[in-house]
Amino acid sequence: MADDKTSRKQIILKEAARLFREKGYIASNLRELAKRAGIQGGSLYHHFGSKQDILFQLMDNTMTDMVTSLSNLLAETTDPEEKLRRLLRFHISYTVCGPDETYITDDELRNLNADNYLQIIAKRDAYQKLFEEVFQDGCQQKGWMVVDYKLVARAAIQMGTGVASWYRPGGPMSINQISEHYVELLCRGVLPRKAD
Length: 196
Fold this sequence. Notes:
The chain contains eight helices and no strands. About 25% of the residues are buried. Helix content is about 70%, strand content about 0%. By secondary structure, it is mostly helical. The longest helix has 29 residues, at about 115-140. It has helices at about 1-25, 30-35, 50-75, 80-95, 100-105, 115-140, 150-160, 175-190.
């Protein structure tokens, strides 16, 4: 019974992500969400207390998964360039492959109540901190020239997030190839390199 309840909850969250992306959180209603999830309208309240709870759970699940998954990937290596490669590959892939959830987590923050907002921002900050630490390691171990870790981390996150708006499977570059180009750009810039 617990498994059935868990899977129903996941279906509701998946459909909520789709609905919120299509219509926006404010314009979405629970009756339509219940219909999409294949349940009676009142049954939603067996799983969630309100539409706000659904939005929060959707964002919280997404950010928890991103922080945990990326932390595990980065723990497998000590080389800053390899960490940067893994970081960008993960971020781009997660953003492209889970667009509804990641889009909602990014776009609907303004519709969280104050307490929920603070909780999600704390997880977003933890995710950004992983990026900052990679750039800090690069400076300490490899002599990367980064003056402001936070600024560069934000730029890297936005670069990766933006891929979801134009990437198409079967296009000229895979996610791994795009990641490699971004690693090259972040590590070596666009200026010609002088001969040693």
